[in-house]
């Protein structure tokens, strides 16, 4: 279902501003492996990609309407400017996407030493016979906890790396989609540029025709004025001749 031209134009104007704002925020943000943050960024990327698609569709609708319906040259020029401005916004968004991929790929989780259980030092072992068995048990338990912690940390980091790789694949897929939209938009801008050139040519021809028409009118006015002066002169001469004839006849 096609939307009214006014709504199409409004969305084509407002969407690029939101896309530019998100591209700027993306270029300044740092990778994070906290799940709430990653989910929020995933949702934002999906939203902004959908905005790109919607805006491209709106501009195509406007361009089709400009070719199909009789509209003013002013609207055609305005629609062409919107498409060109959106093309510049897409370039910014593409740059932000590439930067996001580079940062995600360069950032990796690590095993923190702060959370590791502290094992017992050999100097802490009491040499007393009554404490030896207990200390051995505590030492073994400490080692076991350390191994469990390391194992859990490795599993967690592997899951995070998998999520990171999925995020990179998602961004790369969105980059491919935006690149296709950018190519279509380039064709649209080129077509609209040709249409604007045609409008400019018509305007220039109209200006030339108007100038020529003014010249013809000025020439006609001068000719008419000259003819009027000639008629007046002839009337004066005719009047003088008539007066002379009357005087001669009266004599």
UniProtKB/TrEMBL annotation:
GO molecular function: SNAP receptor activity
Keyword Transmembrane annotated: yes
Biased amino acid composition, Polar residues: 23-35
SUPFAM superfamilies to which the protein is assigned, alphabetical: t-snare proteins (SSF47661)
SMART domains tied to this protein: t_SNARE
Source organism, top-level taxon: Eukaryota
Assigned keywords, A-Z: Membrane, Protein transport, Transmembrane, Transmembrane helix, Transport
GO BP: any one term: vesicle-mediated transport
Comp. bias regions, Basic residues: 36-45
Record flagged with keyword Membrane: yes
Family: Belongs to the syntaxin family.
Entry protein name: t-SNARE coiled-coil homology domain-containing protein
Species whose genome carries this gene: Zea mays
